[in-house]
Amino acid sequence: MTPTQTISAPVAIVMGSDSDLPTMAKAVTVCEEFGVAYHLEIISAHRTPERMVEFASQAHQSNLKVIIAGAGGAAHLPGMIAALTPLPVIGVPVPSRHLQGLDSLYSIVQMPAGIPVATVAIGNAQNAALLAIQILASHNRELLTQVIIYRQSLAQQVQTKQARLDE
Ligand code: RP5
């Protein structure tokens, strides 16, 4: 396990279980596409609570700037990390086996005033990574340019689809 204070990446992608990885891998892919380094770790609010406290309370003393936290079911990880760090936390509700992720969403999104978690849609780890990158880009012109180019590519995709409809 990496000592938290030695983490050199600006983005952490943490998740409650390896069963969350198929969802959270989408955040990994986006970070890799943008060339943003990330720290990937399984941290469980319930099964490894001491590691959660150690990681979250020391994260701001590392190079980390933003934390993406995914969990499913009783998804307490993002909120507990947010309670323990001054860094921005983005929560990913992981689709669950029995309630399709609605339980995860409610567990993550209903934070009390004062301790925000920026919650994305159920399963949308892609948006979590994009938001993390936009946070970094607010102080990084090169990354900001990459975000602008990415948005232009989205617009281009829509135009291509419309051109097919028009044929
Ligand atoms: C949560 O419990 C994890 O985030 C995961 O989504 C869910 C189920 O975990 P496993 O039983 O698959 O390890 O803590």
From TrEMBL:
HAMAP family: PurE_classI
Protein name (database record): N5-carboxyaminoimidazole ribonucleotide mutase
Ribonucleoprotein in keyword set: no
Alphabetical list of PANTHER family matching this protein: PHOSPHORIBOSYLAMINOIMIDAZOLE CARBOXYLASE, PHOSPHORIBOSYLAMINOIMIDAZOLE CARBOXYLASE CATALYTIC SUBUNIT
Domain of life: Bacteria
SMART domains membership: AIRC
Domain PurE: residue ranges: 9-158
SUPFAM superfamilies: N5-CAIR mutase (phosphoribosylaminoimidazole carboxylase, PurE)
Record keywords, A-Z: Isomerase, Lyase, Purine biosynthesis
Protein function: Catalyzes the conversion of N5-carboxyaminoimidazole ribonucleotide (N5-CAIR) to 4-carboxy-5-aminoimidazole ribonucleotide (CAIR).
Catalysed reaction equations from the record: 5-carboxyamino-1-(5-phospho-D-ribosyl)imidazole + H(+) = 5-amino-1-(5-phospho-D-ribosyl)imidazole-4-carboxylate
E.C. designation(s): 5.4.99.18
Family indicated by similarity: Belongs to the AIR carboxylase family. Class I subfamily.
The protein's enzyme class: isomerase
Coiled coil: none
Pathway: Purine metabolism; IMP biosynthesis via de novo pathway; 5-amino-1-(5-phospho-D-ribosyl)imidazole-4-carboxylate from 5-amino-1-(5-phospho-D-ribosyl)imidazole (N5-CAIR route): step 2/2
Residues annotated to bind substrate: S17, D20, R47
Membrane-spanning parts: none
